[in-house]
Amino acid sequence: MNDLTTYIKSIGEKTDSTLEKLLPASSLYPQSIHELMRYCCFAGGKRVRPCLVVAAFEACSGKSAGEDVFKAAAAIEMLHTFSLIHDDLPCMDDDDYRRGKKTAHKAFNEALAVLGGDALCIIAFEVLAGIGKVEIISEIARSLGTMGMIGGQVVDIESEGKPVDKDIVEYIHNNKTAALIRASINTGAMLAGATKAEIDKLSSYGTHVGLAFQVVDDILDEESTTEQLGKDAGSDRERGKATFPAVMGLEQSKLYAKDLIDKAWEDIEFLGNKGYYLRELAEYIRVRIF
Amino acid sequence: MNDLTTYIKSIGEKTDSTLEKLLPASSLYPQSIHELMRYCCFAGGKRVRPCLVVAAFEACSGKSAGEDVFKAAAAIEMLHTFSLIHDDLPCMDDDDYRRGKKTAHKAFNEALAVLGGDALCIIAFEVLAGIGKVEIISEIARSLGTMGMIGGQVVDIESEGKPVDKDIVEYIHNNKTAALIRASINTGAMLAGATKAEIDKLSSYGTHVGLAFQVVDDILDEESTTEQLGKDAGSDRERGKATFPAVMGLEQSKLYAKDLIDKAWEDIEFLGNKGYYLRELAEYIRVRIF
Fold it and tell me: Chain B 142-161, CB below 8 Å of chain A: which residues?
């Protein structure tokens, strides 16, 4: 069994080559939007969601991920990128940098950023349709809609600068971040033909890992420099964003992240040795802060 | 056989009641985005695309449209509404009124308009997945992407205020408007189990009707008052938009619309009497200007 770093690197490379094949060429008319889509999809993302799709598939099936699994992983990465492009817009978080590069509306323009996000959302569904399983399209669409990612984003924006409690922060992050992470894991499990009972446990793992991911993100925003983050550090606090450190303090947030990862490990005890990479990925998400 | 007005009215009512069931309730948290989605979907649209879905289904199957056909029709209307919300944004066409009502970003705010458009796009794919036919999801996604609606919108925006020829205007309208109209007809035909040869002819009908629809829209923008249109009349010319009247003049545009509808009628000769409503719908689109 490879170590986690090798595993992550290999999945990242295969996701990139799949994206390379699926995204329209930059030379294709109208070029500007295709350039934007590729600029944003190849901006140095960590490919966390593709890793979770693949690891869930491999844990449940005992097989190596093939073309369809990587197509699903690439589609989910497109959907994640779509959400980042729209989140960064002037009318939303108004961010100039992301992963150390100019955001889409800064590198191109605002109209093209809106349309490029839309196009990534649409092509992702086209790719998912090509896999041929409607239940996966339903699962992913539900995780993105107003009962999922978009709902979380709405409450996030509407809570800015207002006093919020832990319930609101949990609502935001459970929907804005954890919903698509959960859907990534469920997609891998569904492609592997996992049972309903297995998917339920993996869903719970997804919720715990997804929340932990966001707690860590919030902590990093407080504790890191702009250079380390590739985006403006401390910007959450400046904008009065609803974050875990804001409602429970930094130390409690760190303990909470640890607790969430412990729970994620419990969720996948049933996988035994097959759960190795899923456990390691959960730990990898946590240790970013320690 | 009912007359066209009765037919259109009945489809509009059934589409509305389907949308009513499929859209999240305004009382559901987070309320603001659900209010926006309903505000935009029930803003008095003519339901042209649902009429084409239903008429194509009934012409090809000889049966009355049932629940799945109306679900597809409602999903396509959601996708059309998503495109209008984003088109109206300040960074795009910057329109304050649509169908006599304030546009989404004016009635609510810009962030919510971006997210509400996104949410309508996403829920539409969820609804389509519920019908269970991936080939319909592929067809509709292709028609919306950068080789379809979004591509047309990009070129439309990038052509503003620049000299354009008829080829560019045709490209814009064939993609921005005709692509989803064509997909609507193809969806109806696919739900009816039409053959490849039949779908090809209906696709051609869709292209002709879709282009005619946009030629007529351009003419109305020139010839009508703001009150008649429910949006700013003459705004295309003011903004230097690429329109048919701008490249071929008003009289030629009217002749072109007539020619397109004649061709649409030829495309569906094979349907005989079963093509009655599709012929009438094409004519209905043309006579708006005469």
Answer: 142, 144-147, 150-151, 153-155, 157-158
